[in-house]
Amino acid sequence: MPISIENALRDAAHLLAEHQSPSPRIDASVLLCHVLDKPSSYLYTWSDKVLTEQECDAFNALVARRQLGEPVAYIIGYRDFWSLRLNVEPSTLIPRPDTERLVELALERLSPDASAVLDLGTGTGAIALSIASERKDVQVMGVDLRSEAVALAERNQLENGITNAHFKQSSWFDNVPAQTFSMIVSNPPYIDPEDPHLSQGDVRFEPKSALIADDHGLADIRHICQQSPSFLAQDGWLLIEHGYDQGEPVRTIFSDAGFVDVETLHDYAGLDRVTLGRFAN
Ligand code: GLN
What we know:
Blueprint: H1 5-18, H2 24-36, H3 40-45, H4 53-67, H5 72-76, E1 78-81, E2 84-87, H6 97-109, E3 116-120, H7 126-134, E4 139-144, H8 147-159, E5 165-169, E6 181-186, H9 208-211, H10 214-217, H11 219-227, E7 232-241, H12 247-256, E8 259-266, E9 272-279
Parallel strand pairs: 3-4, 3-6, 4-5, 6-7
Antiparallel strand pairs: 1-2, 7-9, 8-9
Bound molecules: glutamine.
Glutamine binds next to loops.
């Protein structure tokens, strides 16, 4: 039966709401925009337009995947982050708005004479590419344990026309050349392996290696804090994203590793999300 854009969206949103999507209407709109290859304004301007059978079938197939819990970003293959459109694959974490806060804080602190930035566990390249896009005078290196992530970040760099970043396979600092950086940034895995949220929502589909860390989620943060001083220039900053309840232990880890001006800042929901510190040698 022929169905209009408006009705297709309404039906899909109902189905997705029944299957616990936290954002059924938005999910339905994003999936339909993808099928039609149009911006969201099109859906509202042409809400009475009848979908072709082919469009309808394609839309229903995507909605069915979302009903099974698959994240929208994996279904359509990309996520918008900062000013960039980033390809995403199940081998990497899906970039989140909270991480844009880290980018914002990093840019605020990156001095005018900064020359190099390191992003550890870059995944899609989200943080590295956002910083590189705003500071063309700075060279950004992004590293990731997974070679699939390195390839994906390189593709994202190319497709976003960024030339001042490069990516490398490395477990944290292992393959980082002996040089100093003006700033080190990271959104490492920080979820406690026992956290019940791991069996709910989008995270079920994301790689565990990008999400969980030992020692109540703090093991990788500790490793990064302890190793960073050897790779930071005088007065260089370290900024790390972490869980909403990890501000206090993370500040202690920063201070124990020799950082000063240690501070935890909030995400857009007002929760502790990023701790930063300056390495004063
Ligand atoms: N912020 C993500 C979440 O809680 C986790 C990201 C991470 O572990 N780096 O879903």
